[in-house]
Amino acid sequence: MRKNFAFLIAAGSLVLAMILSGVLFSRAAVPAPGPSGYHVIKTVSIPGDEGWDYLNVDSAARRVYISHGSHVVVMNADTYAIEGDVPDTQGVHGIALAPDLGRGFVSAGRANTAVIFDLSSLKTLATVKTDANPDAIVYDRVTKRVFTLNGRGQNTTAISGADGTVAGALALGGKPEFAVADGQGSIYVNIEDKNELVQFDAQKLTETHRWPLAPCKSPSGLSMDLKNRRLFSVCDEKVMAVVNADTGAVVATPAICDGPDASAFDPSSGYAFASCGDGHLTVVHEDSPDKFSVVENVPTKRSARTMGLDLKTHNIFLPSAEFDAPPAGERRGKMKPGSFAIVVVGK
Q1: Per-domain residue ranges for the chain?
Q2: CA dihedral of 258, 262, 265, 271, whole degrees rounded to 10
Q3: Which residues, 6 or more positions from 141, have their beta carbon under 8 angstroms from its beta carbon?
Q4: Does the structure show a pLDDT above 90 at 226?
Q5: What is the per-residue burial (b if ≥16 Cβ within 10 Å, else e) of 77-88?
């Protein structure tokens, strides 16, 4: 009887151990995500043959703001109809939106200004002088300031979103590319020519941290997972640098498409995106804050380097155009007339 009882205890312990090991194994072996389902669902022709840079999606107001050389085209995010235009934004690079203030802001790179416009009427309200070649532009809800990232000025100009006054400037020690606000009073900026990431205090206009991004080279687009405090810098040589926003540590370097210029993150799906001039959109899944899996490279269109993410529909808008063969010694030929279009990628 004692032997049988001891046997039952031993057998029960073995079964329990197997169950526990199975649970632990199942937790450790998180399956890789399946295909994202993203594909090109629409190509929308946009009149005009000027160049472009960034675009921005107002998911609540259902508008897409598209930089287009000397003006900003405003397109309906659902019908793709052109709803309006913000004129005289010479050399426009980026558009920042402040729905809480009812205002939008445009970086006019050739004019060395920021253009402030009304989100309802699209009428220009003011023009603010910045330093040389304002490129990216970002709005911080905490301080209610707008920051232009000035390429040749190698600094940022802080502008009051409410009245357009210049609050100050901060040297960035290199050529700034894209920037994001973390919702806690900090701005993060990719420094393209130094392969660095700078964090600064949006209120005090003081540098908080400066971190190397190795192995990332020439970082351009930048986005953020606000909840998990992870930054996504897209870089040359097919690298995305995932950075801990509190420590500056590069926690992952998933491989991406070639020639990236924009990054986006969708908190509802855990997808980080990189858009590239080689005609692909890389989809990376956040398995955990420090583990990332490349899901796929979705074919888009060559030259579609920048993008805007609609957080409501999860569609992605990518401007593109077709070009003639480049002359000897040049990187790009002339844009083909009538070829400028927005490629819409969705599920």
Answers
A1: 36-346
A2: -20
A3: 98, 100, 181, 183
A4: yes
A5: beebeeebebee
The answer to whether 271 and 36 have CB atoms below 8 angstroms apart is yes
Would the CA dihedral through 90, 181, 244, 200 be positive or negative? positive
Contact criterion met (CB below 8 Å) for 317 and 46: no
- Which residues have CB under 8 Å from 265's CB, separation 6+? 223, 224, 225, 232, 271, 272, 273, 309
Please give the CATH superfamily to which domain 36-346 belongs.
YVTN repeat-like/Quinoprotein amine dehydrogenase (2.130.10.10)
Amino acid at 64: V
Please give the C-alpha separations between residue 22 and each of 17, 85, 220, 247, 301, in angstroms, as whole numbers.
Answer: 8, 60, 44, 35, 45
Model-level pTM? 0.90
Q: Could you read off the pLDDT of 272-283 as tens digits, one per residue?
A: 999 999 999 999
Q: Which DSSP category does 35 fall into?
A: -
Cβ atoms of 56 and 117 within 8 Å: the answer is no
| Contact (Cβ atoms closer than 8 angstroms) between residue 9 and residue 1 | no
- Residue ranges with strand state E in 77-144: 82-86, 92-98, 103-108, 113-118, 124-129, 134-140
Q: What share of the chain is helix, strand, coil (3-state, %, to 5)?
A: 10, 50, 45
For 54, 80, 136, 187, 191, the CA distances from 174, given in Å and listed in that order, are 21, 38, 14, 16, 6
My answer on whether omega of the bond before 35 falls inside 30° of 0, hence cis, is no
pLDDT digits (tens, 9 = 90+) for 123-158: 999 999 999 999 999 999 999 999 999 999 999 999
pLDDT at 28 over 50: no
